[in-house]
Amino acid sequence: GVFAHLEMLEAQAHEAAVKQEETEQQEEKLARLKARVQELRLQRDELRAKVDLQQKGQLGKEGVVSDPAQPSARAVLEWKIKSVKAMLQVFYLTGISGKLTKRGVCFCISTAYEGTYLDSYYLDLLTKPEVQIHRHSVPSFIPLEQIAKKYLQTDIRRFLSVLSDHLNAYAGRRYQADQLQEHFSDQIEGTLQRNSLCNLLVFNYNVSSKSKTFLFNVRLLYGDLCCSLPTEVTISCAPDAPTSLAETAAAHSDLFRRVALHKAFRSFGSAEESMD
User: Fold this and answer.
1) I need a surface site. Which of 2, 167, 233, 246 has the fewest CB within 10 A?
2) Other beta carbons less than 10 A from residue 36's beta carbon
3) Residues in CB range of 29: below 8 A, 6 or more apart
4) pTM exceeds 0.70
5) What's the CA gap between 49 and 38, in Å, rounded?
6) What is the DSSP string of the chain?
7) Lowest mean pLDDT among 34-38, 65-69, 136-140, 147-151
8) Which CATH class is domain 91-171?
9) What is the residue extent of each domain of the chain?
């Protein structure tokens, strides 16, 4: 009866986790759609600006037709400024804001996890004679140089988007580890080990079975640096542990892959309280 009750509680926890994940996915999808709408509007404005420039070039002075491929320098400058401002508005919806500077653009990338604001990082770009990074506050373990080499000169939107994904995923992983240490220290045995990038976490936690306490050793590997959920979960237990704990370890492993670390532990606690 106890195991059947445990299975029922695990099924309920699984269902709740799935619903939570679906809600978060819908919110992320809505944010992406909003950003896409703004991007399409930007493209529309750019096309309108190009048409306006061509029409002005064809009229010329006193009705004389001029070369449409050679718009005035002022018109080109106004169009560039308008395009940059529109681009900044697009990024604002995705947690990226920016302002024009005398030598280029300064961006601020804000990170958050599950609606909780975390940290902001700054990136000062020079635009002449070519786009280059002047200074920044991005942590050294984020592959900024690799991302810049791949996208900065060809697609600055993609560059900022990929960099934002890396920073948000890192902030999310670090936040989960902090929440685990802060709220579930009574279940953690020893110290939670993590590297600077927080893409490898190793820790031990206690699990009760038949009035005895056993230790689970966990290794979480985040192979995708743009993701805040682990791609590989390894849970091991002492050789003398009951066979039933192997099923518990499998259930925990599945939960770690699908929901935030601290939420997984919260569901473990709820299941134990219900059994008591």
Assistant:
1) 2
2) 12
3) none
4) no
5) 16
6) -HHHHHHHHHHHHHHHHHHHHHHHHHHHHHHHHHHHHHHHHHHHHHHHHHHHHHHHHHH-GGG----TTS--HHHHHHHHHHHHHHHHHHHHTTTEEEEE-SSEEEEEEEEEETTEEEEEEEEEEE-SSS-EEEEE---TTS-HHHHHHHHTTT-HHHHHHHHHHHHHHHHHHHHHHHHHHHH-TTTEEEEEEE-TT--EEEEEEEEEETTEEEEEEEEEE---TT-SS-SEEEEEE-TTS-THHHHHHHHHHHHHHHS-HHHHHHHHHHHHHHH-
7) 65-69
8) alpha beta
9) 91-171, 185-273
What backbone torsions phi and psi does residue 38 show, to the nearest 5 degrees? -65, -40
**pLDDT interval class at 155 (50, 70, 90):** confident
